[in-house]
Amino acid sequence: MAKKYDGTHRFSKSHKNSVKADVIILGCSLPGIVTAHKLKRKFGDTMVIVVLDLVGPTRTPSKCNVAFLEEVDDDTTEVDGEETTVKQVVDNVARHYISMYSKEFNIPLPNAIIMPENTKTNLSKLFQHLNGNIVECLSDYHDFNYLSIMERFELNQYQALLDQTVIDVFHKDKLDSEVDRKMLMYYDKTTMEQHICDVLLFSTSREIMRTVVGLVCGAPANTISVLFYLHQCYRTSSARNHLDGDNTRFREKLLGYCRHRLASKLQKSIADITMATKSIKEIRTYSNEQVILETIKGETNYVCNLLAMALRPDQLLKIRFDDQLMSKEQASITSRMSAGRAKKFLIQYEENIWNDQGYSGDILSIQGPIIWAMEKPKMSTTGSTEKYAAIVGYLMIRDSDDNSKDAVIAQLVKLFGEKAANPVSYKETNIADVFIPRCGDYIALRKFTGGTCNGFLEWGALDIFADGDVAAALEAGHAAYLHLLSILRPQAQTYEDISTAEWPTLLRHSPFERWLAELNCKSGIRFVVYTAAISIGVHLIRTYLRR
Fold first, then answer.
1. How many CA atoms, within 13 angstroms, populate the side-chain half-sphere of residue 316?
2. Domains in the chain, start-ordered, CATH in brackets?
3. How many CA atoms are closer than 13 Å to the CA of 535, on its beta-carbon side?
4. Angle value at C-alpha 257, between 406 and 389, nearest 5 degrees
5. More confidently predicted of 83 and 93
């Protein structure tokens, strides 16, 4: 399979204007360049690897810096004079992949992402109810101390139930029984909206969960299957802490700076094996041994023994596939993956008006337009002071794309007083970086991306495509690399390669905990009603018998 080549002729071109390679990675998305980088490091010049860039020139890397951890030894990091082992720092799948690749390229990480517990403050957070009432919150949002006793109870129970369900679904070695398969199908075809309404009794509890789902997935609860949301909880080890950003996804997506730095380093590492190409119109096989990619004008064909797909689902719609590579059913599944959407805002002030009043700048609101926000982390590696104080966060998505500046300022005035009425600058941007499978398609998509088509096509980077969500993109690219490695040279897999994909079970489980998690306000009311009905029934029967 391997072809020897020298540095001056990286790719084999015939007189028919075709580029030949052992492996082609189609697409320069973040998952794609991760896959290419790992393959190049593993095989070097013993195999011809080509990356086809359909986008064009490399994007300009971000000029923004972040509040970095100091560069330290491989095994430890030092925070406030105390050494903390990397194993203690990395406590979930998302943070693990960000940590692994940033360490490989010597990219320091912002404290707000890698160690959010060290960014906590004694200043008060603010919670805004649906009716506009504001509550000061001294503890974390996920403790729910700002809610009534019953609302707090059912939200804590609901999160415990989600955690127990994650264990049942993802922490089993195999799901071979008919019962297990039916359970997966149930969670996949059941929307989060239905699940929320079936379990939660109070409107405030429901609105908080809908807000959390929208923040984590970038889409409303009624478009997300329970199984897809459980997968996000699994990747971050728990359903808890999402509201405070401890589970990485908010802060990592919100800040966004790590992606540009990582992508820039990765693209430089594979620059010599990357080719810019025109749009691909068809992908077909030849004698079930090779994959052929044809461009729109037919000027160049690309031929390989193994193809790795790293395109967005919407890009796949423009390409015609051989039925052996992608069936009509599979094409239908990818076409139904819709782009998630979130809206980010940044507002700056001449002075820090919230700290002066005893507030941290953290906001959680189920009224809107701001639904989650925090004070913008320091953006200097030298320790210099920012010129302006700023708040950064997410806005409620509305049908129109109108600018929310006036509504945001009005909300901040209500939260922080009249000084908030005069910002220095305001900016909001759309985030659309995650493709979400339609309810009922998640299992089919996992099966589709979990195997190869006749051993010459890999779809791993499509699972689940999230180019802007750094952790998900790195994980998808690494998973695709491991799959390709198992096909190309299984004996080349190292212990590190295998162990990376085998993430440990961090949640504990016992039958008692499962039973306890199922106790909530609605189940309690049902129990009382059923008990009362049975008691009345028994009483009536005994009365009838006596007569």
1. 25
2. 12-60+271-338+437-501 (3.50.50.60), 63-119 (no CATH), 149-247+510-516 (1.10.405.10), 342-431 (3.90.660.10)
3. 6
4. 45
5. 93
| Start-to-end CA span in the chain (Å) | 91
Over residues 381-413, the pLDDT tens digits come to: 555 556 789 999 999 987 767 788 999 999 999
CA gap 504, 508 in Å, rounded:
11
Tokens found for residue 486? 């198992």
d(CA 379, CA 540): 73
Q: Say yes or no to pLDDT of 371 above 50.
A: yes
Residue 426's pLDDT band (cuts 50, 70, 90):
very high
Q: Examine the pLDDT at 180 and tell me if it is beyond 90.
A: no
Contacts of 403 (CB under 8 A, 6+ apart): 428
Contact (Cβ atoms closer than 8 angstroms) between residue 528 and residue 520? no
Distance (Å, rounded) from C-alpha 23 to C-alpha 113?
35
Tell me the DSSP string of 389-429.
EEEEEEE---SS----HHHHHHHHHHHH-GGGG--SEEEEE
The band of 536, judged by pLDDT with boundaries at 50, 70 and 90, is confident
Q: What is the pLDDT at residue 358?
A: 92
Window from 115-119, 153-157, 233-237 with minimum mean pLDDT: 115-119
Q: Report how far residue 131's alpha carbon sits from residue 211's, in angstroms, rounded to the nearest whole number.
A: 15
Q: CB of 161 within 8 A of CB of 239?
A: no
Distance CA 11, CA 20 (A): 7
Length of the chain: 547
Give me the long-range contacts of 116-123 (CB less than 8 A, separation at least 24).
Answer: 116/244, 116/245, 116/246, 116/248, 116/251, 117/246, 118/79, 118/80, 119/377, 121/360, 123/355, 123/358, 123/359, 123/360, 123/361
Give the span between the Cα atoms of 485 and 477, in whole angstroms. Answer: 12
What pTM was computed for the model?
0.84
pLDDT of residue 17 exceeding 80, the answer is: no
DSSP for 230-265, written as a single string: HHHHHHTT-STTGGGTTTSHHHHHHH-HHHHHHHHH
Question: What confidence score (pLDDT) does residue 9 get?
Answer: 38
Any idea which of 8-17, 181-190, 286-295 has the lowest mean pLDDT?
8-17
Nearest to 132 by CA among 370, 357, 393: 370
